[in-house]
Give the backbone structure.
Amino acid sequence: MRGLRLYPEDELYREMAFISYYFHWGHEDVMAIDHRSRRKWCAEISAINEKLNPSKDKKKEKSIFDMKLTRRM
């Protein structure tokens, strides 16, 4: 029997910060979004960033999915 698998806390906070930064939403609003929708919003914001800020420099991160976690709480 498998136990409940939780979403990594670091990933949750990273997604929440990303959406909050771009949409200027508060904690309650972002937490009200289900996991699948939150990931979809992150992907949409990232796609907009890539279109608005085209760069030949692949090292420049424009997508939350390209970002590396820089610190742990």
In short: DSSP finds three helices and no strands in the chain. Residues 51 and 62 are 10 Å apart (CA to CA).
